[in-house]
Every structure is written in structure tokens, then in C-alpha cells.
Amino acid sequence: MLKLITGYNVGIAVDTVTAIQVSGRKEAHYKIPEKEFPSSPDKPNVRLLGTGGTIASRLTIAPAR
């Protein structure tokens, strides 16, 4: 797998690679802020599972209407 500059990943079959040239490298430094989930004793508990995404996945809480 290669991470492209756009953030997307691309897979390459190993047996098709004839040469490798490093053209640059950048270490990623990021932190997704943690948030407390609202709860209410009169509502049932649920579990939320985030499994990632193409570039990044983030669980956001929409304001109540």
C-alpha cells in the first residue's frame, strides 16, 4: 500500500514492482479531539463503533433539535 499525497491509498501487486524510488517523506502529526458523549438516564445505552474511512473517520455529535 502507498499513501498518495491526496490522502488516498493505492495497492500495488508486489510481483509487478521492478524498482522503487523514494521521492519524499512526511511524518503525520495529528490528534482528533476527544469529546464526551451526552447521556440521559431515561434513554437506552447504545455503543458506537467507528471503523475508519478513506482518508479519516471521525464520529461527530449533532446538536439536538
Describe this structure in words.
By secondary structure, this protein is largely without helices or strands. It has strands at about 1-5, 10. The protein has a two-stranded antiparallel sheet. A hairpin with a 5-residue loop joins strand 1 (about 1-5) and strand 2. The relative contact order is 0.21. The mean pLDDT is about 75.
Features:
65 residues; little secondary structure; elongated
User: How many DSSP helices?
Assistant: 0
Q: Tally the beta strands.
A: 2
Helices and strands, in N-to-C order?
EE
Strand order of the largest sheet: 1-2
Radius of gyration: 20 Å
Shape: elongated
Q: Which structural class do you get from the secondary structure elements? A: little secondary structure
Helical content stands at under 10%
% residues in beta strands:
5-15%
Report the biggest beta sheet as strand number plus sense, adding barrel if it closes: 2 strands, antiparallel
What value does the average pLDDT take? Answer: 76
Low-confidence stretches: none
Q: First CA to last CA: what distance?
A: 42 Å
